[in-house]
Amino acid sequence: MKKISELSCDVLIIGSGAAGLSLALRLAERYRVVVLSKGPVSEGATYYAQGGIAAVFDELDSIDAHVEDTLIAGAGLCDPQAARFIASNARHCLQWLIDRGVAFDRSSDMAGTGGYHLTREGGHSHRRILHAADATGKAVATTLTSEALRHPNIQIAENQYAIDIILSDPQEITGSRRAAGAWVWDKNSGQVSACRAQSVVLATGGAAQVYRYTTNPVTATGDGIAMAWRAGCRIANLEFNQFHPTALYHPQASSFLLTEALRGEGAWLVRPDGSRFMPETDSRAELAPRDIVTRAINSEMKRLNAACMYLDISHKPATFIRQHFPTICQKLAGVGLDLTCDRIPIVPAAHYTCGGVLVDQRGRTDVDRLWAIGEVSYTGLHGANRMASNSLLECLVYGWAAAEDILAQQPAFCTTQTLPDCTIGSADNAHAQQDFALLRQELQQIMWENVGIVRTTKKLEHAQRHITELQQQLEEYAACVRLCGELLELRNMAQVAHLMAQCALARKESRGLHFTLDYPNQSSAATPTILAPYGDINR
């Protein structure tokens, strides 16, 4: 038995991306805020986001058009109220970023856009994407991190793994259950502490690391979804995992996202012989929503028995390409490819978790004093498929909405729970960590093969059985080995993977990102898949 040390703050934010840091900055004038980052702040998904942030700045555009595009991309499953709430609050949240120094690209050639260069991406009927060259996420993350580090009321704690939410009454199923902080494992010292807080916010991002091929950083292991589930929160629509159509396929490079803005600026998707295939698939061609483009690429690869397809923007002027996509040009040059003249080999890769912890319009979960914002949450915005550049927008709008809600709350430290001792195994981890690496690869392969772009009931049931067996193995390890990041992540990945398969099995149709050969048609009724920790499935 190990005695737990205890810390406290007003607001505990688990996650240090755009959602978490924007919330922290909005709260810090009144509250003491602790932001937990599982690794260095620069390892989060926000830092790697390329494309931009959608908002209506063009005089010829409208909030109605932004909402309509979002609803169409979401294949009938978006919550119209959520889509309108986010689109309506986009501009002032973007202005908040601009006021803090985020330098979005400007253009004197575009009239009626407020002086900003707006690009267009798949699913959008207008140019409405504000961007900072092709590294928008980096610009946002760098600005927010710099300001947060300077603020006296914000403490950013790196290399801190949240284990689980501390609850006021762990046995209470409904009613009085309240979040009171989180158990935290310090990667540097190996020690566990309890961080008490009046309010707890999950801003941990998505879970694309459950797949073998992904554009996400290694930290995207579904931690917040798993913690919320164990705390008693409902989750929704985890069957909808977005596979980005264009990730670099190259033996000498890790999976690297090739932004949708390339296609927005005229790039083509072509077969190995150089012929286009998207015009045959959809009237919007390369600008069709991501689910359609991904399945088209996957279909062509299988039909031709090809390892990849290609992205080609060489018909555009080289100076234009280098000016608008400097980061991608540099990255590709490192593996011997030239974006201005080469066809770039691409494959789909897991990119975004459209489902998550069920929240209301303020980011509130089913547990009192526990919020979830950003990719970890399910707001209803994305439906069955996320439209490009709506993700960072959702982070910012819900960072603002949750801040307004938390600022309106009365202080509510929970003093009813006595912190228990914590049982931690003591066995050596040397061999166990090798096992964890192999088990992680096994899980990722199971998910890629069985809960991927094209599914069947048989494959989904196979995935569930294997994931259940893996979870049992992890329980045995947890009882004896020392706590480590590999075990914590794998535990969460397995939990979320199981929920993804369960959601997919519950949906007896094909819609958006969920395509199953057993139910290839879309049903007339469009309802979210909602799972409750106590056994209820709401379809």
TrEMBL record:
Keywords: Coiled coil, Cytoplasm, FAD, Flavoprotein, Nucleotide-binding, Oxidoreductase, Pyridine nucleotide biosynthesis. Its EC number is 1.4.3.16. It is an enzyme of class 1 (oxidoreductase). Its cofactor is FAD. It catalyses: L-aspartate + O2 = iminosuccinate + H2O2. Pathway: Cofactor biosynthesis; NAD(+) biosynthesis; iminoaspartate from L-aspartate (oxidase route): step 1/1. This is L-aspartate oxidase. The lineage of its organism: Bacteria, Pseudomonadati, Pseudomonadota, Gammaproteobacteria, Enterobacterales.
